[in-house]
Write a structure and sequence with these properties.
- The chain is mostly helical and about 100 residues long.
- The protein has one domain: Dehydroquinate synthase-like - alpha domain (Dehydroquinate synthase-like, alpha domain, Up-down Bundle), CATH 1.20.1090.10.
- The chain is built from six helices and no strands.
Length: about 100
């Protein structure tokens, strides 16, 4: 989810990268913000957060992702407070990526 939100506020994600111990000196705000993702991967691993949706051991069928995305968009508070306003296609894309690839929450 963080990867999706980076363009919504590079400045804040760059600051978060610094707070998480990343060396952002001399980097553009965009490059510094990207380090936030790496720091969160490490933090997730350190505290035992699964790396992918498949790793949750919840038997989430891949074909249910569109329905999950529709439901996610009905929870207005997180959507309204998100740095970027996601479309249904955006949420489906985030879930599909999270299903197969390492994610930073």
């Amino acid at each position: 989810m963080v990867q999706y939100n980076l363009p919504g506020n590079y400045e804040k994600f760059a600051l978060l990268a610094e707070v998480l111990g990343q060396n952002t000196e001399g980097l553009s705000r965009r490059d510094a913000a990207s380090l936030c993702v790496e720091a969160l991967y490490d933090l997730n691993a350190d505290v035992g957060i699964p790396a992918t949706l498949k790793d949750l051991d919840m038997d989430i069928p891949f074909d249910q992702i569109p329905k999950m995305a529709e439901i996610a968009l009905t929870v207005t508070r997180p959507v309204e407070n998100n740095p970027r306003q996601p479309s249904l296609a955006d949420v489906i894309g985030v879930y599909e990526r999270a299903y197969r690839h390492k994610i930073a929450l």
